[in-house]
Amino acid sequence: MIVNEREAVSRAKFWELERRAPPGVPVYQQDPFQNDVWEALDGDKDDFLVYDRCGLLTFHIVLPYSFLHYVYVEAAIRATYNKNICNCTLLGRLITTAIIIIVIIAILILTTTITAVTRISPNISLTQVRMKLFIVLVIITLILSILTTIIIIIIISSSSSSSRTSSLATTVILLG
């Protein structure tokens, strides 16, 4: 997408910019009273900001390197589109969420065990409570180790196939 500057001179040339934009590339005009895109994105006029499909900034190309007769802009777009630079995948997000859920479940199991042990036997010694907690922690650690191994295998096996298909949505913002 191309975001036109909000200054009066740039606004007056908006239609020319839109006419010269490549087919399918949207051109947006900043409202003079809205927050400046350059401030929000930490960019400047004529910068190219290339984002991957996860919305992460992969390249920020500034003048003079943003002139299109140089290879930098095209190389940044190609690298973002063809390579899995950020390694962001839906699978990766699911795995992160699964790990968080597993940790929360482990904490719940641990606190439930502590509560159950102290309710069943109020006269239980501190050593016995520690031993039961140690057993629960060992079981939780084994479960997490197995899940981590499975996750690593999935990531390794999907990384080779996802590098070709993972960058289906690359966003380029030209601030001009």
How would you describe the overall organization of this protein?
GO terms for molecular function: selenium binding. Its main location: secreted. Keywords: Glycoprotein, Membrane, Secreted, Selenocysteine, Signal, Transmembrane, Transmembrane helix. This protein is α/β, with parallel strands linked by helices and 176 residues long. The protein has two domains: 2-86 and 168-175, no CATH class; 90-165. It is built from six helices and five strands. The protein has helices spanning 8-12, 14-20, 37-41, 72-82, 90-120, 126-165, and strands at residues 2-4, 27-29, 47-51, 57-61, 171-175. Helix 5 (90-120) packs antiparallel against helix 6. The N and C termini lie close together (11 Å).
Q: Tell how many strands the DSSP assignment holds.
A: 5
Side by side, the strands of the main sheet go: 2-1-5-3-4
Task: Tally the helices.
Answer: 6
Low-confidence stretches: 160-170
Rg result: 26 Å
How far is the first residue's CA from the last residue's CA? 11 Å
Q: Helix and strand succession?
A: EHHEHEEHHHE
Q: What would the average pLDDT be, to the nearest integer?
A: 75
What's the shape?
A: elongated
Question: What is the structural class?
Answer: alpha/beta
What composes the largest sheet?
5 strands, mixed
Percentage of residues in strands:
5-15%
Helical amount: 55-70%
Count of domain modules? 2
